[in-house]
Design brief:
Blueprint (H helix, E strand, L loop, with lengths): L1 H23 L6 H25 L5 H12 L22 H13 L7 H15 L18 H37 L3 H12 L2 H7 L5 H21 L5 H14 L5 H14 L2 H26 L18 H11 L10 H8 L24 H17 L12 H11 L4 H15 L1 H7 L12 H4 L5 H8 L3 H10 L5 E4 L11 E4 L4 H11 L10 E19 L6 E4 L1 E6 L2 E2 L7 E5 L17 E6 L5 E19 L8 E6 L5 E5 L3 E4 L6 H11 L4 E5 L5 H6 L1 H4 L1 E7 L2 E6 L2
Parallel strand pairs: 1-2, 1-13
Antiparallel strand pairs: 3-9, 3-10, 3-12, 4-8, 5-6, 5-9, 7-9, 10-11, 13-15, 14-15
Helix pairs in contact: 1-2, 1-3, 1-6, 2-3, 2-6, 2-9, 2-10, 4-6, 5-6, 6-7, 6-9, 7-16, 7-17, 9-10, 9-11, 10-11, 10-12, 11-12, 15-16, 22-23
């Protein structure tokens, strides 16, 4: 029951703050609009209060609870609502089974991949630290966390399920807002049908009952649209305050929702014809957006992290990772984007969910263009749809659904019986048993009413081990790894259920470097068995550069860069000033004498990239040797020296290449480098690359297996 209490406290605080603000600005809402619009508006305000406690590092549970209870005390008394009638529609009964289905799923133990992973993993970490930590080895910590700020107080009271119930409350608020909007435009049937098409959608059901944020984004985006509609009726500029706050909060919940701010500014500028009105919207959005950008600038030198790394260069996220991630998000393994309509409506295996086959009829929404309200709905939906193509996962369609659902219903408002048929079809094809008829077997959707799980008649630990593929790994780590130690893993686990810091291989530049080092121990193509030699007449210089000469789709990598005079290598001195572009932060890896490390460009090679060593005085050299690996040896470079005039002059582009045997025990060298970076535990799944090599002879790596199970093994460094 604590989960219900935690979610209820947060919901009450959000509603109270929002209701107080609507009274202060004199908004004339009817009683059916009051809860959804006030709740969503108050969520924006409460998120800022919780952010402040975390920023000040005072997020102890009494402080957070005082903030929540103080917000609840703000609820206005004696509010007079606009008079409005409500007629019960039998079609509303269709909502009941879907509400029950989603509610008990939200109340059950939280086992969703991202919810039990980074969404609540970060919330739990902030709570343990009583504030924000400077996290540079997890890109998800750099994303705006507007909804996670609401998860925190719920988590304090009711832990993981309470956070999922908070998200479920946003789903209910969205439905109520859509119902109210139908009444506002004088077409209640449109509101009922549109709300049902959205809420019963399989992806909305599973996402909105998990500790995700996509349904909350849809609710906030629709609230922005709704407040704009209210403002447009009377042009009271005070009503632009919630518009601006919510447009900024949309960004705070999820980066891609920033387009709602652009939509709001364009709408106000077009309809109001006054720049001051648009300026008010922008000014009110600022306090919602700025804290997250400032946080990222302070922590990782990038205000839009983990994006924009080619512009805001930093040592925390590699450009190559961002490029690969964007390419994957645009494709999801689809052979052609022309298959997207069928994939996101009926199959769902590749794009991780379905919206339901009824949305194959979405082009009907174009008929709503005949009405001005339909044009506005479609305009808002199109703005949100524009950013969908940067990530074609099904759940990224959720913010568009309210607008397109209402537009579809509006297009058919001439025939309520036809709308009812559409709703019944959607109900049948969106119920768990109906989904199994046509969708892929393992599509992400609700499977049953989880009554026993929600009431914990099935113990939580038992249910989580059944439902989550990585919960058991999290418990394995928590049981066997001492507090304060870090664990390297190749993929995500349910980090919300462990207090240990798990470094996931792809989540930061530091983690990628760790994986690269570990892979050098077993992958012969990443071992320094190639030497490229540049010879030239003896030259006296103050510096030497190795410069990339030709473009390549591959990355540039160098294990070691050595300089010679005759048969003698120039001894490396602390006074040398070594530099590189790009990735100057790892340049020392090309001068550390370790066979397990290499400097890499971490982006495709192109002319102008360089590795450089400047000497404190003049040195005579006649040879440069580049130790590299088979993966990197096709990169073409040239040698330049610094002449007396301070200009770089090419001395050689002719290179000879030879294969050499590997020196030393590279496996132990790799593990030593992990140990030097304060990583002493490895969680290796049996399906991970190199897992068999480590499993067959952990001693040769300097590792000891300390636990195994659930398709993985846990190793400890024994150097």
């Amino acid at each position: 029951m604590t989960a219900l209490l935690g979610a209820a406290l947060v919901a009450a605080a959000c509603y109270a703050l929002g209701a107080r603000l609507t009274v202060l600005i004199g908004a004339k809402l009817d009683r059916w609009e009051r809860f959804p619009l006030a709740f969503i508006l108050g969520a924006a305000c409460l998120h800022l209060a919780i952010f402040t406690t975390l920023a000040l590092k005072i997020a102890y549970w009494p402080v957070v609870m005082i903030v929540v209870l103080a917000a609840i005390c703000c609820i206005p008394r004696g509010v007079v609502y606009k008079k409005s009638e409500w007629r019960f529609s039998p079609a509303l009964l269709l909502f009941v089974p879907f509400v029950v289905l989603a509610f008990f799923h939200a109340w059950a133990p939280e086992s969703s991949p991202d919810g039990s992973g980074y969404h609540l993993g970060l919330v739990a970490r902030y709570f343990r630290a009583h504030g924000f930590e400077r996290i540079t080895n997890d890109m998800f910590a750099s994303l705006s966390g507007g909804l996670e700020m609401l998860f925190l107080p719920a988590f304090i009271v009711g832990r993981h399920s309470a956070a999922a119930l908070v998200h479920f409350t946003f789903a209910i608020a969205l439905v109520l807002a859509m119902l109210a909007y139908g009444r506002r435009i004088g077409k209640p049937w449109v509101g009922v049908a549109g709300a049902f098409l959205t809420f019963a959608s399989p992806i909305v059901g599973i996402d909105g009952s998990s500790a995700y944020n996509d349904v909350a984004v849809a609710a906030v985006a629709f609230a922005v649209f709704y407040w704009l509609e209210i403002w447009d009726e009377g042009r009271n500029d005070l009503l632009l305050i919630p518009v601006g706050l919510l447009a900024g909060y949309a960004y705070a919940v999820k980066y891609t929702a920033f387009v709602m701010l652009a939509f709001a500014l364009a709408f106000v500028a077009w309809r109001g014809r006054r720049w001051k009105a648009a300026l008010l919207v922008a000014a009110c959005s600022f306090p919602m957006i700025a804290p997250w950008m400032i946080k990222d600038w302070v922590e990782v030198r990038n205000p839009v992290a983990p994006l924009g790394n080619a512009i805001f260069r930093n040592p925390y996220v590699h450009v190559s990772f961002e490029q690969a991630l964007n390419a994957n998000f645009r494709r999801y393994g689809l052979a052609s984007k022309w298959t997207l309509p069928v994939e996101v409506t009926m199959r769902g295996q590749k794009t991780e969910g379905i919206i339901g086959p009824v949305f194959l009829a979405a082009p009907l929404a174009l008929l709503a263009l005949r009405q001005s309200v339909g044009r506005r709905l479609l305009a808002a939906g199109a703005v949100l749809l524009a950013v969908y193509f940067f990530n074609v996962g099904t759940r990224f369609l959720i913010p568009c659904l309210p607008f397109f659902s209402l537009a579809m219903a509006l297009a058919l408002d001439f025939s309520p019986p036809l709308l009812l048929v559409l709703m019944f079809f959607h109900a049948i094809t969106s119920w768990p048993s109906g989904i199994r008829v046509y969708a892929d077997q393992y599509v992400w959707s609700l499977d049953k009413i989880r009554f026993k799980e929600a009431l914990r008649r099935i113990p939580q630990d038992v249910e989580l081990r059944r439902a989550s593929g990585t919960y058991s790994l999290a418990r394995l780590v928590d049981t066997n790894v001492p507090k304060g130690e870090r664990v390297l893993a190749m993929d995500q686990i349910a980090s919300a259920y462990t207090s240990r810091e798990v470094l996931v291989g792809f989540e930061s530049a530091f983690n990628e470097e760790l994986v690269d080092i570990l892979n050098s121990g077993w992958n012969e193509f990443q071992q320094p068995t190639v030497i490229q030699t540049f010879r030239f007449p003896p030259t006296t210089t103050r510096g030497v550069r190795l410069v990339e000469a030709t473009p390549s789709k591959e990355q540039w990598g160098v294990h070691e860069l050595r300089f010679y005079n005759g048969s003698d290598e120039l001894p490396r001195l602390p006074e040398w000033r070594v530099q590189a572009w790009p990735n100057p932060w790892d340049v020392q890896l090309a001068f550390d004498n370790s066979p397990a490390t290499r400097w890499r460009s971490w982006e495709p090679a192109k002319p102008g990239m360089y590795l450089e060593a400047d000497f404190p005085g003049t040195r005579t050299i006649d040879r440069v040797a580049v130790e590299t690996c088979p993966d990197d040896h096709d990169i073409r470079t040239e040698v330049q020296v610094l002449d007396d005039r301070g200009q770089w002059r090419r001395v050689s582009s002719a290179m000879s290449e030879e294969s050499v045997p590997l020196r030393g025990n590279i496996r132990k060298a790799a593990v030593y480098e992990l140990h030097a970076r304060n990583v002493n535990y490895l969680l290796i799944r049996d399906t991970d690359y190199g897992a068999a090599d480590i499993r067959d002879d952990p001693e040769s790596w300097g590792l000891e297996e300390i636990a195994a199970g659930f398709g993985a093994r846990l190793y400890r460094v024994m150097l």
